[in-house]
Amino acid sequence: MVIGIGGLLAACGYGAYSYKRRGAMSTSVFLMQFRVIAQGTAVGALTAGMLYHIYTNYINKPKNSAISAITKTNDH
């Protein structure tokens, strides 16, 4: 969560800096380009999270630990 908030603050800071230095570009065009960049970043972050989840749960399956073996109920 801290990384996400830090990324948000960095993106807002970069956007404010870029807005001041945009030159002759109109505000609507700048905001449209910034929106596309923000959406691409969000999709990339979601994809990375999904790939990490798939890797940890399906490819690199956790082994049965001693604790899970002890707490496992015996169904007769």
TrEMBL record:
<dbReference type="GO" id="GO:0031966">
    <property type="term" value="C:mitochondrial membrane"/>
</dbReference>
<dbReference type="InterPro" id="IPR007667">
    <property type="entry name" value="Hypoxia_induced_domain"/>
</dbReference>
<protein>
    <recommendedName>
        <fullName>HIG1 domain-containing protein</fullName>
    </recommendedName>
</protein>
<keyword id="KW-0496">Mitochondrion</keyword>
<feature type="transmembrane region" description="Helical">
    <location>
        <begin position="34"/>
        <end position="55"/>
    </location>
</feature>
<dbReference type="GO" id="GO:0097250">
    <property type="term" value="P:mitochondrial respirasome assembly"/>
</dbReference>
<keyword id="KW-0812">Transmembrane</keyword>
<keyword id="KW-1133">Transmembrane helix</keyword>
<keyword id="KW-0472">Membrane</keyword>
<dbReference type="Pfam" id="PF04588">
    <property type="entry name" value="HIG_1_N"/>
</dbReference>
<feature type="domain" description="HIG1">
    <location>
        <begin position="1"/>
        <end position="64"/>
    </location>
</feature>
<dbReference type="InterPro" id="IPR050355">
    <property type="entry name" value="RCF1"/>
</dbReference>
